[in-house]
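TA notes, week 10

Several of you asked for a full example with nothing omitted. So below is the full record: structure tokens for the whole chain, then the designed sequence directly under it. When grading your own attempts, check the secondary structure regions first.
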């Protein structure tokens, strides 16, 4: 998917064919074996990966995910998307992504700590505050980043908070970082509603995925005045056409670990959830959720891609033929996380920290600028929002590489 998108934009920008590979292929791709001792005394080896797409604009930046389906190709694609996302929002980063092929739900806290520390140790030659900075992603959290920071700092000999972002505030994390992606998604949805003349109090929202991004986006959209009619997680979904009490749902999820069974709702599958009639649809789960099989059945006015790559290229063709759907593409929609990660990195480097309101104000200004630039190009060039966002991001990387030249 990532390569198809790049090729489309490269042709449109008339980038010389002999330059494609230099821009497309990652700077570095690492694959490591991670043996750890399980709690029962047995040794198990896990596969770990890290891909750094380019370092033309500064250090690479990207998340670390723990998931059974993690593979080198997936990580490489996500790193490429991260490059365009950072360039679109004007951050001095190249894209990166990492992962470990595991199911964190089947590992104890002690096993997760050993696995994280082993992975960090293997990556030390390739990471650093001016080389590659990691952050949480699917299956990882603030605690994961705290273990990474500690492992790296022990090797260096002093505390290095700027080696990771998304860590606890007590260790140099930024206020507002955990909520930043979800709040950014909601902010951009609110801007899109202004653009297409929708009123929040008369709008229904459907959210697929109730992890960190989906849950925060749910509360933020409810605060804007939207009615949340359906939510799902890995176990399934819930639906109530009259609306779901998001605060009560949060308390229920904290207690049970799932949205399923929440009182006053009926169960619904993830497949059914995506085709519910609504004004706002937010896929906030994993890749390839909207495909050529269901793209024509989607009944929303705004499609906000909170997840990375939730729409396949085949589905894109169908959605582009439906002018009633306003798309907020993934590299714009979920950029709030990397923007506030950048803020955290800057604060750590300066040892000077901001208030949560300062963080959110700066975040909204950057997202507003990226949204307006994307919307303007989309309308001026008569192209989709996705193609506009990718064009802006890729062109900035291409221009930077051209200015720096080719070494040696």
């Amino acid at each position: 998917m990532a390569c198809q998108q790049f090729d489309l934009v490269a042709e449109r920008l008339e980038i010389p064919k002999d330059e494609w590979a230099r821009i497309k292929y990652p700077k570095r791709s690492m694959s490591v074996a991670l043996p750890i001792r399980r709690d029962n005394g047995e040794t198990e080896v896990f596969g770990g990966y890290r891909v750094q797409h380019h370092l033309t604009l500064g250090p690479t930046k990207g998340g670390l995910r723990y998931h059974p389906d993690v593979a080198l190709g997936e990580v490489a694609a996500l790193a490429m998307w991260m490059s365009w996302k950072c360039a679109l929002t004007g951050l001095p980063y190249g894209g990166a992504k990492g992962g470990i092929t595991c199911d964190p739900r089947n590992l104890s806290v002690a096993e997760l700590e050993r696995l994280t520390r082993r992975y960090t140790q293997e990556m030390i030659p390739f990471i650093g505050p001016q080389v590659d900075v990691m952050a949480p992603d699917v299956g990882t959290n603030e605690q994961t980043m705290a273990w990474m920071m500690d492992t790296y700092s022990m090797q260096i000999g002093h505390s290095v908070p700027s080696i990771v972002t998304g860590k606890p505030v007590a260790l140099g994390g930024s206020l507002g970082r955990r909520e930043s992606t979800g709040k950014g998604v909601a902010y951009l949805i609110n801007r899109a509603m202004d653009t297409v003349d929708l009123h929040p109090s008369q709008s229904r929202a459907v959210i697929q995925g109730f992890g960190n991004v989906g849950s925060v986006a749910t509360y933020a959209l409810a605060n804007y005045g939207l009615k949340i009619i359906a939510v799902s997680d890995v176990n399934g979904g819930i639906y109530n056409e009259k609306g779901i009490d998001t605060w009560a749902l949060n308390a229920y999820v904290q207690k049970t670990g799932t949205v399923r069974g929440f009182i006053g709702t009926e169960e619904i599958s993830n497949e059914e959830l995506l085709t519910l009639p609504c004004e706002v649809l937010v896929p906030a789960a994993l890749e390839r959720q909207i495909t050529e099989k269901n793209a024509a059945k989607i009944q929303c006015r705004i499609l906000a891609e909170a997840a990375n790559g939730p729409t396949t290229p085949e589905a894109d063709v169908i959605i582009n033929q439906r002018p009633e759907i306003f798309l907020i593409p993934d590299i714009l929609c979920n950029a709030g996380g990397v923007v506030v990660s950048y803020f955290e990195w800057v604060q750590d480097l300066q040892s000077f920290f901001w208030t949560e309101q300062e963080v959110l104000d700066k975040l909204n200004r950057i997202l507003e600028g990226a949204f307006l630039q994307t919307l303007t190009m989309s309308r001026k060039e008569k192209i989709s929002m996705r193609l506009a966002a990718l064009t802006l991001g890729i062109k900035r990387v291409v221009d930077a590489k051209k200015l720096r030249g080719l070494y040696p």
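The two ends are 32 Å apart (CA to CA). Use that as a sanity check on your answer.
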